[in-house]
Specification:
single chain; about 550 residues; about 30% strand; UPA
Length: about 550
Amino acid sequence: MQGILSDILPGPGVLQFILTQAAFIVLLIVIMKCLHSRCPWLPNCMIGQDAAQENTEVQVDPGTLGSTSLSDVPCPKATSQEMEEFFKDLHSPTDNRVVRKKLLHKLLVFMTKEVDHRGACLMLADMGISLEVPPDAVSLGRVERVSLVLVWDLLDSPPLLGTQALISPVVYCGPHGASFQQLCTLSFKHCAGSGTYVRVYASDTHLLASKEWEELHNKPSRQNRICITRDECQIKLDHFSLYTSVLETYGRPEVHKWLQLAVFSSPLSADQSHQQIRIYFLNNTPCALQWAHCNEEPFRGSLCGPVQLFEFANTSKDMFLVLKYLSEGWENIDENASQYVPFLHIWHGKCPFRSFCFRRKTVSPVDSPSQNTSEIIVTMHVFQKDLQEKYLEVLRLHITESGCQAERVSPKPYCNRIPRELFEQLQMLLEPNTVSGNDWRKLASRLGLCGTKIRFMSCQQSPAAATLEFFEELNGSLHDLYKIMLSMERLDCAVTVEAFLNDPLPDCPGLSQRDKDQENHCCCEGKTTSLASECDSGLTDLGSVKEREICSQTTDEHTAIQ
């Protein structure tokens, strides 16, 4: 018997080998299960055909909405019960109210109505989005639940190339696939400023599925159902899905979209040592501004005055934000006075923002008795790189305990204005008409004005003054004016301009000696200071004399500027 068993059973070495291999296999299975349940990347890689069959997708947590870097880590796959609760909440009637709610990591703004044969109109107030269900679209005796949803999840936007710009929000009409007897009309805003290069995109999927964006203009059956105006898209729908619009530039540099620059800050309190302002670069659509308000709620930030429009060019140039002036008693925490936003972050509509944080200086009242840090005055320049001479916005902020106010300052450099005394002398010399026409008329001709415009100038109270003002509008320098006078052989005018180039400016009320020196320097140099070279100049450089004059006057009116 013992011999038989010894022949059947393996030896000790073989048995040990089998047990070792079995333990290794069990350990490997346990590790794979742990990785499958814990690792956030593995389910996304393995989802494959299962996700397509179940018509679901792995959700991605957007993290801090509006930041320039979104999280790439997917959230756990939604279960059937979670999806059921999601659509139950989304398609429950809201009693004519607009609801803002976060469902399954998606921030949504929506309205749901029960619609019968009489039709209805769903409108998201302050968002510029509406859905009209006409009469008889629903059969008599039936009631359909209709939802209009603004999707504030940036990851649901269509994937874009560098030549494409997102110019509209992503809008969802639900339930997905619902059809009606009459065409419904969906309307939403875009920021292209023209409908020439605007294309409507749709994803024939529900809100939680993997998006499959395609251009509706490529479908002959849909082309006649799309109407695009200078600021709105109107689509006739035969069934419900997701929609947005994209700006197709086709490599044309003249194509642009309009932004709104929105500055937010919280009121200033007497006991706080730091103050922060945030500047948003948003598409010029109502819902983008409302998103910024929503994003500011945790910071208790409020909009500082009206937004400023900006023409954002298709040049692949980044946006720069330069701090040009900060009132006394405060200092910028960051040593660099300039920040930039990558071109594609704005072009693809990611709603980026940049912030500046200021710190109250600790100065003894004995050393600086006139300083009062109960308010802050800030001046900033906003421009695209290498385009500051064409597209430039100057923002001036006034932050107090009662809130923040913003105003737009003319970006035209004051140092290119002809000094008043010189202006009057040239006006007196050029005003009289000469037989040869070598007067204000020849100057107007040298500036490119045609005969019709010169005749219009002659009807002005002072044609010479009107011509000199036109020269100022061209941002010409005194050096340019001096050369023009020499070419006109008006040596009397050239000598007068040369005297101002060589001598300091006369006393002028409202300007300090430093301002006059700087203005004289700008005029004598014959050019404005380049903003690109000023990015690292620090806060002591106020940019232009006009801004310095404003700040100087403000300092006179207020004993302290925060």
